[in-house]
Hints:
Strand content: under 5%
Oligomer: single chain
Distance between the termini: 35 Å
Structural class: mainly alpha
Largest sheet: none
Shape: globular
Radius of gyration: 24 Å
Low-confidence stretches: 476-493
Number of helices: 19
Helix content: over 70%
Number of strands: 0
Amino acid sequence: xxxxxxxxxxxxxxxxxxxxxxxxxxxxxxxxxxxxxxxxxxxxxxxxxxxxxxxxxxxxxxxxxxxxxxxxxxxxxxxxxxxxxxxxxxxxxxxxxxxxxxxxxxxxxxxxxxxxxxxxxxxxxxxxxxxxxxxxxxxxxxxxxxxxxxxxxxxxxxxxxxxxxxxxxxxxxxxxxxxxxxxxxxxxxxxxxxxxxxxxxxxxxxxxxxxxxxxxxxxxxxxxxxxxxxxxxxxxxxxxxxxxxxxxxxxxxxxxxxxxxxxxxxxxxxxxxxxxxxxxxxxxxxxxxxxxxxxxxxxxxxxxxxxxxxxxxxxxxxxxxxxxxxxxxxxxxxxxxxxxxxxxxxxxxxxxxxxxxxxxxxxxxxxxxxxxxxxxxxxxxxxxxxxxxxxxxxxxxxxxxxxxxxxxxxxxxxxxxxxxxxxxxxxxxxxxxxxxxxxxxxxxxxxxxxxxxxxxxxxxxxxxxxxxxxxxxxxxxxxxxxxxxxxxxxxxx
Length: 493
């Protein structure tokens, strides 16, 4: 599990780095307004993709983890996803003119391109879930690199050919997803098994409730994304609502969530790992405590660094002071966002998908209500208030469910000490001279990490036991262990 997470982490970091560089390139090509329109198109595509999957990716990930009848399970998952994705694609194609009419007629071709490639994207999601459950991480990583490279190359080629900006991005990503599906299907080698019949009942019992709840939440998220520019335009201080929306969602959030490549790898592998655990055994509480501890410390590290480095990051990446100011505003919420990703994954691994989806649905509905009321009155301040309240509530509900299900105990004292140290180090680091080059940023990150490590060690947030645990994970036995092994070898001789 450790080496799989390490491999996924390295791959995700490189992919996120390439994606962020490409996002910077796109912002220069199509501007903040174009980024805002692209995010609106992607939000509609995300809803169609969720409807097309219908919860079956999680079902494939859960049902094929170390179980027999994988061929029959995948066949049923494919049939289910194909029926859902074709229906969603048809609906998106028919609704595209009406949706684009609210954006001054822009985005019609992009929405129809999403509809045309939707079934291939959904089937690719099913296969990626199976490859993760089967432990074929290297194959999945290689295909993800291929997909990202094809998407960037195709988009740049289309932009150079004079194709409209948003349509170029959508077509490039869709063509790459179709190519990734073909490659994964070719590499999907399943052992021969006696055909026991397709387990439609097991697939439907898991996928349908999850699919309905995820679709409702995705629908609310899409409604939220669609109403933000409209309601924000009613605020007296707004100059360009869609440009402001593009700055927050298309520029700030990618920086804010860039470090999650590390945690999302762990979250992806925790689902099948916890699904194999014996209920009531010692492993679920152990994994829950370790996962929460890792997510907390990493989230605090990222939060403090992003807060202290917000200004230089905004200037270097986007040449914008507004990006840096917004990044500093959202940085304190990073620990909650990062821990919520791990908590959601562990709840899914423990079979709490329905409760998790119910919490997501409640908070998404609350988000839409708060945005509708506060955006015309408070502008982007209302958006921040809605974002903070709903994510904090979702995390609290999910954490409560995880602690009860895994029977894990928490230590709030460590969290308080770790957060206080991170805040102090961020404040101290913020007084350093401003850096304007990547090399200066690397030196700043090293200084910040070293100082934070010293604070955490002095406050007993990080103990010697934690370091030994990491060494054991990395396969570095202690001197005493090596001596015992040598002694046993000598006695056997």
